[in-house]
Structures are given as C-alpha cells and as structure tokens.
TrEMBL record:
Coiled coil feature spans: none
Protein name per Swiss-Prot or TrEMBL: Response regulator
4-aspartylphosphate, modified sites: 53
Sequence ranges assigned to domain Response regulatory in this UniProt record: 4-120
One BP term from GO: phosphorelay signal transduction system
Keyword set, alphabetical order: Phosphoprotein
Length: 121
C-alpha cells in the first residue's frame, strides 16, 4: 500500500510537477491550491503526510499548522513545510508551530524524497 500525501501549493506549475514526481515514486497524491482547501482535504482524506507551502491564499502555512495542532485527528499527521523563505526565524517559527520538517525552495527532488521517507518511517 502506498502512502497518501496531501500536497498544498498555490503555484499550479510546481503543484503539477511535484504531484507527477511523487506519483512516479508510487505515492497516492491529493492536491490543494490553498490552506483552506488543504485543511478540508486533510479532514476528508486523512493523509499519511502533508507537504505545504507557507505563503499562500486564504489560510497560510502557519495558520494551517495551528489548525492541525488543534485537531486531535490531524495533529498526528506530519507536515513538511516547503518554502522559498530561508531565514532562520521563518524555519524556527514553522518548527515551533508544529512542522515536522522544513525544506527550502528551490530543492532537489531527491532531498525532498529523503525527508518524505524519514517522516513516513
């Protein structure tokens, strides 16, 4: 059985590319283009892992992390933040709010996949 990953990214091109790469590695991928849609999808589909951007419309990644932490079912799901923000303050903020890992864009897919495997094991 393949792991189910929820991918939340507001840039359509990146969303499609990552979805295709993850599917090539036998993951089942559910997508959302903003945090609010991502939250709904997480509640509906209970993914094994969430990969989310920080800066996106409606609900941003920080608010998403807070909502996951408040929900007993969602709080068990690891969230990997993928963001172009490289500042130490940004990274620490995401980790303090409950992110299981943080990867900066642009990244090599191999680096992302390594993080995914660690979080799913």
């Amino acid at each position: 059985m393949s792991a189910k990953i929820l991918l939340i990214e507001d840039k359509a091109g990146l969303l499609d590319t990552l979805k295709s790469l993850l599917e090539l590695h036998q993951y089942t991928v559910i997508t959302a283009s903003n945090g609010e849609e991502g939250l709904r999808m997480a509640i509906t589909h209970t993914p094994d892992l969430v990969i989310s951007d920080i800066y996106m419309p409606v609900i941003n990644g920080y608010q998403l992390l807070e909502k996951f932490r408040e929900n007993p079912e969602l709080s068990k799901i690891p969230v990997l933040i993928a963001s172009a923000k490289t500042g130490e303050e940004e990274i620490n903020n995401a980790l303090q709010k409950g992110a299981a890992a943080y990867i900066t864009k642009p990244f090599l897919f191999a680096h992302l996949h390594e993080n995914i495997r660690k979080l799913l094991s």
